[in-house]
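During the practical work, I worked with a single protein chain and the tokens that describe its fold, as given directly below.
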Amino acid sequence: MTALGDGPTLLYDTGSPVPGPGGIPVTYEQFATGSLPVVGVGVEALPVPRLSSGLKLHGEYQGSGFTEPKYIARRGDGQVVQLSRLLYLVASAIDGVNDIETISHRVSARYGRELSADNVRFLVEEKLDPLGVTVPEGKEEDEVSAPRSDLLLALKGHRIIFNERRAGRIARSLAWLHRPTVVVLMLAAAVAMDVWLFGFFGAVEPVLQVLDQPLLMLVVFALTVASLVFHEFGHASACRYGGARPGCIGCGLFLIWPSMYTDVTDIYRIGRAGRLRTDLGGVYFNVVFMLGMAGAYFATGQQFFLAAVYLGHFEILEQLMPAVRLDGYYILGDLAGVPDLYGKIKPILLSTVPGRRGKAARAEVVGLKKSSRTIITTWVLTMVPLLIGELGYALWNLPRIVATMVRSLTDQVVGTGDAFAGGQVAAALMGVIGCFMLLCPMVGVIYLSLKLGGRVFRAAKRSTADKPTLRVGLCALALLGLGTLSYAWVSGVTPEPLPKRPPIAPILQPGVSTAEPPARHAGVPRPHTSPSDTSAAQPSGAASPGSTATTTPSVSASPSPDASASTSPGASPSKKPTTPAGGTGTTGSASAGPPVGPSDPPDTSPSAPSSPPAPTTDPPTPTESVSATGAPSPATP
């Protein structure tokens, strides 16, 4: 501020015109007689706009898929905002000191077209203020409560594990792994490792060995969590290597699973190659982690390290899926040059609708380059039917899913409590992990259902505002659909709950019976029983006419039903053979066998007990552990 005068009372320049050169014109007579005009009287003070607290202007979005250049600004709350060139020039000219008249001169010189102070006022009040880029006039604080993108498929309830400072140190120490020579050597070593593991050694045997020992299962679980953390280090270090500054590393709930994330929003200001490197940095570090596990196996001979390597392959495949906001989604978005693919679903679908709304949507779609438009349109036409189909399937099977999940959780809790009571600490801890794996999908499904239902209700309310006839028709249609679905649930048209089956991996479900349940339908093969079992199970009543119990003198091993994969959540990814109880040739105890009635004679065989079924070697499916990482951050729109 400039002090005017040298008397005891000082006047401070607040940006208003002052008498003298460059200010209010004065005459010699006014100066000689002391009749100078009073500052601020009769002169309207122009507003001085201010940027919101923590706002950063990142410049032009490199590798954009739009025909017109887009500019990126990041608010203090982490939300990223796309601006046109004119709005970006206005925002960059705002410094909290100059008024809109001075800003209009600066922007006019850079933009190449004349802008008046009223034009700047309109852009600030109608465009930048609603986006949270500038502070509304009359507000003293620099903090703004601008709207945020409430993404349905975004990370929720996230918590910071490594703050920005610690994440930066980790990124600096690991950035050398992204040098081209090192990357080539790592990938070549990974190919050699996979050829040896899958082609010569055998990848499933280490997993089966781990599934028989609760302590080793805990170790592999810890290694899996460590690989998720190292995955995030890959995103942060790639961001640092590309010239951007990584943010914090944290965790939260993504869809129905606990997830980890890395704030790498700063990559918006670097080129497409740097963004793709950051997107792929996570899976690249998964490869590096697996190489470390293979090295640990060669050093110690412990095969549980190879089990962690095997499960790491599934983690990589999961991350590369472009369906939800995982690494594959951001890779596809950066290839197309569009930061938010889900944000383009609405305009692409509306562009097919005739009328004014369709025309506006088509104008937005036309704003994309042809290559980007092709990629995004293909993705939308693939994803929308898939999402609708999965939602319909989930609603149709809702009673089946709920009943199966409740039954599985009840058995899991009871079995885990028995393991704790019996002093089986390792087995009990694995049971706790199994409970956690069952609870996460249940809580996630409830949360997503409420969230999706609320969005549909609000959208219907907005679209039918001031249209009572349309609202009544929509309500009638919703009631009809709900009534039809409820009737299908109650009448048994929908699939019944899954039958109770032995756990695929009893190690995750301690205390849960591994006996094969009785068959409920005639078409299901029943296990053969020995004569001793037959006598115990034979009813007291006489056999019905025309039915005789035959005895087979030949020696035969009764086939044991294979353990089928249970679809209850929390099932571990492998199969375990059922052990015959008491050497009787059955797959369960005598009490677990099906009741034998007069009209259903038992099949007896005085033969030697059957041998247990050979263990299967189907490759297990890994326990899903989502890592919602990386490229652009969960805070980005």
The chain is about 50% helix and 5% strand. Confidence is low (pLDDT under 50) at residues 1-24, 520-637. Residues 339-396 form one domain. The first strand starts at residue 3 and ends at 4.
